[in-house]
Amino acid sequence: MSIDKALLLAFFEEQQKCEADKKEIVVEIKEAFATFAYNNELIKKSVRRVYKLYKEFQKDNEFVLVDSETDLLLDTVIPVYSEDADAAAVAQG
CA torsion angle for 51, 53, 54, 59 (degrees, to 10)? Predict the structure, then answer.
């Protein structure tokens, strides 16, 4: 194996730059979700979860079936899931 040290170090430096850029982008995305949720009086975690489901829907043609089945399963294991929000809040104390 023969590799030029300068070439290898340049590659590593470029990867470090990409990783730093990635960290900045991750922070920007988190801030965007937090701001959107706050401005629209939503829970940030809910917006993130719906976004994740939205992305899954875009790439999976079984999404509707899986989502419907998921709702049924949640209703089975978490009875308050099927109740309205006020009743659920009372049940949680």
Answer: 130
**Would you tell me the crossing angle of helices 63-77 and 44-59 to the nearest 10 degrees?**
140
Q: In this structure, are residues 91 and 80 in contact, taking their beta carbons and an 8 Å threshold?
A: yes
Count Cβ neighbours within 10 Å for each residue of 29-56 and write b for 16 or more, e otherwise.
Answer: eeeebeeebeeeeeeeeebeeeeeeeee
Residue with tokens 């709702």: 71
Q: Which residues contact 92 (CB under 8 A, 6 or more apart)?
A: 80
Q: What is the pLDDT of residues 36-82, one digit of tens each?
A: 999 999 999 999 999 998 998 888 878 888 888 988 888 888 877 56
pTM over 0.70: no
Q: What whole-number distance in Å separates Cα of residue 2 and Cα of residue 81?
A: 62
**pLDDT tens column, 2-22:** 999 999 999 999 999 999 999
